[in-house]
Amino acid sequence: MNPRRREDAAVRLPRTLLRFLLLATLAANPGIALRAQQAASRPGLLVVARDDSRSVTFLAPTPNFTLTPQQSIHPQLKPAFIAEWTGYIKIPRAGRYTFFADAHVFINGREVEGQPVQLAAGENTLRIAFARKPGGPARLQLQWHSDHFAREPVPWTAFVRREYPTLPSLADTVPGPVVSEAPLQRFHQLARQLNCIECHELYGPPRRAFGANEAPPPLTDAGNKLRASWLEDVLVRNRRVRPWMSLLPAHGGETARELVPLFAQQAGAELGEGERAEPLPPAQLDEGAKLLGSGDGGLSCITCHDFKGRRSVGDLRGPDMVEMHARIRGDWLRRWLRDPGRIQQGTAMPAFFSEMPAAEAEAKIDRLLRTLAAGRDLPLPAGLDAPTADFKLAAHNEVVVHRTFIAESSPRSIAVGFPGGLSCVFDSEACSLRYVWIGGFLDVEPVWTGRGGGNAKAIGQRIFTAPNAFPLRLGSMEAEPKQLAFKGYSLVKSPNGAMEAVEFRFEADGVAVKQVLARSRGGGLEMRFNLGNRTNDSWFAATDSDKARVSSPDGEFHNGRLVVRGARQTRFTVRIDPK
User: Fold this and answer.
1) pTM, whole model, 2 decimals?
2) How far apart are the C-alpha atoms of 545 and 541, rounded to whole Å?
């Protein structure tokens, strides 16, 4: 059923009434409209709301909320109110988009809720109109889907407005009568009072700077992600999921209990625990655990994730898998598994299911969730009990991908080993290849022994080192892209089912790039690029080394540059073969 028809939420209002509300508020605040026209874009939306006796205007990061019957969108308004959010929505790529909300949604002046609409990339005007019917709960969460991604809540970074320097935000205390509980304002005020924003990202960066592997988890999406019971354990009882990280100071105890439901309410999420998967029957747990291990058919989750308190077998450490079901709502975990790079740019989590047919991917994701639902009843996955005396990793019958710390690359490095002794390092922070070597793969003893903290060592002889400059040029042969955003990676299977290549995805100045790393017929590295539809030419910069030759079947390199002509599907290949 269309949620807009539910009796406990929005009711239809004449458009003229809503426009009158906005115009009246602007008239009562001289200069707002003029400043809006003159100001630059800032995150968030302008909110105008009123009940039968009072109107308020404030700024909010998103239009989302969940309210119980006696609560309101603002402490000075009664539970029965009407509200309108205005601003702009940033469309990442041109295409067909569908928006979902328990409200009227207007894009570029056209009502679009539930109807596909073709939109251009960039900022498009947004207006959301909502009316609260008294006597029941209310929930608003703007969601979207397109040809490029599955249905999801619209991220807060997509909402922008013109600057209104004199208007209060949700964290500000506004003088006036308090007539209702207002969870949105209370959440942001508590987050400020308890100093959560000192270390945690919450609709913007934290006050304190952290290294790439030291930052605590962001709080912006925690209401959609975490179950209420887990939030209570963490906030009130100091439960830990990353025991290797410092926790300064201890969480707030009883003073933080009030935050537990507010996380979901400020995100427009369902209150409580969210979706729960049905655990696999005991007779199927051994088969289910194979998904987590490194044996045949396994996803090698144990490479990066702890298991029942045992450390991951790889260089990185992720939250314990037996606690995932207790922590994470099922709908969020499904979205994460489908495309982790979409939720967290630069994540170490591979996109295992991105290349599968949709039905097959959903079936495997469902089985994985049912496996994780068994929690501590799960048996030990294959590979976790293997001896670790030999710290030399090797690629035998298929490609091996290993997140690690390695010299001359960022902490977000991804080492790739191919059968036959070819290896390379891709730097996900720089979105580019760093170097190539032949011989063996990795010696991880400096990372895994003692106190750790060392760098893995490449086994063999380096044959190619990429220049520090970004090799792909999109607008000018001499100009490097100004903005790079890593979007994740996935393994590519051969016809016989073995993993034979790795596909990395990133954006360079907004252009979506796919870069596949595979072994070339000449025993070297083959890089296959797909830039999508390009009307302009592109360039790739690389030169031979003493031990390797750089070439392309798609053209000749001149002065270290390969010219790539724009096309409907711009594809080209670069090979680095040993001399």
Assistant:
1) 0.72
2) 13
